[in-house]
Amino acid sequence: xxxxxxxxxxxxxxxxxxxxxxxxxxxxxxxxxxxxxxxxxxxxxxxxxxxxxxxxxxxxxxxxxxxxxxxxxxxxxxxxxxxxxxxxxxxxxxxxxxxxxxxxxxxxxxxxxxxxxxxxxxxxxxxxxxxxxxxxxxxxxxxxxxxxxxxxxxxxxxxxxxxxxxxxxxxxxxxxxxxxxxxxxxxxxxxxxxxxxxxxxxxxxxxxxxxxxxxxxxxxxxxxxxxxxxxxxxxxxxxxxxxxxxxxxxxxxxxxxxxxxxxxxxxxxxxxxxxxxxxxxxxxxxxxxxxxxxxxxxxxxxxxxxxxxxxxxxxxxxxxxxxxxxxxxxxxxxxxxxxxxxxxxxxxxxxxxxxxxxxxxxxxxxxxxxxxxxxxxxxxxxxxxxxxxxxxxxx
Length: 395
What we know:
10 helices; 61% helix; 10% strand
């Protein structure tokens, strides 16, 4: 019926313990072995069958030792008390010690803390009070009996639980460490992929964009000398782009073994970068006022200028493109301005990844980036802090 109280299904090991305890008690009862004799003072029910009642109750409590440890211990305590006024069964006492052990091991943390203290106090009381009343050394045996039946299993349960909890905590720490390591690995892989994507776009896509623009221009020229010059620029860009592509593929394939690392671009190379843009047909002017700049900032500034010139080559209207680098207030400001206006179509297709890459480079250094129309011009502006830059970092 719905709503009826259902006891949890006992564990298989608990069933075996209960059955073993009950059969052992029945065996002792069958051969006539008991803890006391009919003439002892505490024996109120000397009948032999009377000891079977607490034996059966204690065996039933063993079925709940893991699922209902507190209830099993309380019921088992009542059964042990009843066993003391019968002839008594050693199996009942042994099963009670197991109930005490299980109550500490499987019970709530509060019960696990209290039971060793309670049984310890009862052990002391069981030794001191009878000794004070009867004043004979044999009275201490009562405290010893309480200690063996109650305190010893409670203390054992506490030690086992403490070791079990320590092992579980160590396992959780190991899982957390493994999870953090996996998260770090994923983040490192993601960051490396983003870095390679930026490098691939800035170094290879720039060359390919120049090839696309120059080849388009060459198709519309009739002058042989000018066409030859354009084809020379196309060849230079294709050779440089192919070399960069091979280098990046080698790095991705075998981690860079056997491949010489490319020299990191510096701001001193902006002149050559601007000359290449002029050879591609841009009217570019360069103005740079800066002192010593950290290597990560140099690389980021160079790549931002490089990508801005590539975008101008593809999208800008005819006119002057200005590149200005200024150092002030602990930061390097990069500003690239190009004529802005709607073209019928871009000189070369673009994916929009260039703006994303420039913004990422600035963000990695804790700087700011903005790009957009500014009146008749399209302005790219990045502010890169010079201090607090990670040593050896790459933007």
